[in-house]
């Protein structure tokens, strides 16, 4: 349980805005779940809707006071966690820094993508892992659900990507253009549902650009289910998904040089697909 007092900054602002400011690590879906269960009280009264707050209001939230961060693997040099959907890597990093004397993320995942993230627990490990990612000696696999039947069971997609930082979006081209970087996305069809017209894919990235998987698949006409930026909102609403059905589920070390982390060579880490993947 957490008791909070509304300051003037949030006077006449929605409860949801106040909640997300106080619980940055919690997905907005959890907020609405708490509302449905009436686990939020304002001035002693239970509420079931996103109402306006006023300075001095007392807000009581029946929630864990820290994020649930499943640790997949840990030793003296690295930490591998299963990042929940809805949490920024930066927020996760800030939380972990309260526990560890040294911890740094070695790569990123989108806020609404669940999956494996590697953190270094010392500077030597950080430099080694960053170098391994550059040399593709850490192989990452993603799973995703996309709309439609793929043209091939296995394929490698080659295109070009432009990142528009101001709009926080990317664009894909099939031909080289100024400012566009090459991208390569490999996919394999794991399952197809003719009834729902959805495909479950395994994805391996040969390049790691911003929003690459989401934008590349949407570009070829197979957007990821639940993707609000590159997907189809009508389809997302039909399947009641508010976050993209994309998960970084597999990670394997293929180290070529002897170093502090050589013991990780050929080690593989996997997590189960999220529950909502069962809709396929």
Count of alpha and pi helical runs: 6
Multimerization state: single chain
Low-confidence stretches: none
Could you spell the SSE succession in H and E letters?
EHHEEEEEHEEHEEEEEHHEE
CATH C-level category of the largest domain? Alpha Beta
Q: Based on the coordinates given, report the CATH architecture of the largest domain.
A: 2-Layer Sandwich
Structural category is alpha+beta
CATH topology title of the largest domain = Pseudouridine synthase
From the alpha carbons, calculate the radius of gyration and give it in angstroms: 21 Å
Shape estimate: globular
Major pleated sheet: 11 strands, mixed
Can you tell me the CATH superfamily of the largest domain?
Answer: Pseudouridine synthase
> In whole angstroms, how far apart are the ends?
36 Å
In percent terms, what proportion of residues is strand? 25-35%
Question: What is the total tally of β strands?
Answer: 15
Mean pLDDT: 93
Would you mind describing this structure in some detail?
The protein has 280 residues and is of the alpha+beta class. The chain has two domains: 2-61, RNA-binding S4 domain (Structural Genomics Hypothetical 15.5 Kd Protein In mrcA-pckA Intergenic Region, Chain A), CATH 3.10.290; 71-279, Pseudouridine synthase. Helix content is 18%, strand content 32%. It is built from six helices and 15 strands. It has helices at 15-22, 28-36, 89-96, 123-134, 212-219, 233-238, and strands at residues 2-5, 40-42, 45-46, 58-61, 71-74, 78-83, 104-105, 114-120, 138-147, 154-164, 169-173, 181-193, 198-205, 246-253, 268-270. The strands form two sheets. Strands 5, 6, 7, 8, 9, 10, 11, 12, 13, 14 and 15 form an eleven-stranded mixed sheet that branches. The protein has a four-stranded antiparallel sheet with strand order 1-4-2-3, with no helix packed on it. β2 and β3 (45-46) form a beta hairpin. The radius of gyration is 21 Å and the shape is globular. The two termini are 36 Å apart. The relative contact order is 0.13. The mean pLDDT is 93.
């Amino acid at each position: 349980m957490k008791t909070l007092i509304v300051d003037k900054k949030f006077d006449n602002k929605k409860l949801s805005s106040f909640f997300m400011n106080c619980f940055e690590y919690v997905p907005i879906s959890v907020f609405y779940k708490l509302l449905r269960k009436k686990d939020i009280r304002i001035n002693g009264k239970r509420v079931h809707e996103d109402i306006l707050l006023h300075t001095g209001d007392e807000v009581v939230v029946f929630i864990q006071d820290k994020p649930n961060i499943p640790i997949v693997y840990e030793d003296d040099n690295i930490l591998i966690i299963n990042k929940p959907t809805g949490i920024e890597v930066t927020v996760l990093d800030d939380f972990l820094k309260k526990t560890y004397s040294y911890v740094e993320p070695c790569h990123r995942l989108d806020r609404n993508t669940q999956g494996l993230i590697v953190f270094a627990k010392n500077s030597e490990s950080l430099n080694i892992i960053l170098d391994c990612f550059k040399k593709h000696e850490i192989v990452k696999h993603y799973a995703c659900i996309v709309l439609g039947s793929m043209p091939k069971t296995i394929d490698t997609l080659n295109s070009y990507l432009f990142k528009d930082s101001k709009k926080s979006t990317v664009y894909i081209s099939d031909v080289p253009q100024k400012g566009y970087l090459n991208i390569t996305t490999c996919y394999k069809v794991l399952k197809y549902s003719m009834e729902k017209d959805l495909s479950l894919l395994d994805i391996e990235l040969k390049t790691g650009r911003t929003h690459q998987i989401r934008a590349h698949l949407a570009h070829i006409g197979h957007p990821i289910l639940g993707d609000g930026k590159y997907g189809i909102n009508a389809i997302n609403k039909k399947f009641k998904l508010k976050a993209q059905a994309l998960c970084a589920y597999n990670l394997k070390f293929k180290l070529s040089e002897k170093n502090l982390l050589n013991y990780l060579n050929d080690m593989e880490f996997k997590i189960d697909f999220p529950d909502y993947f069962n809709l396929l």
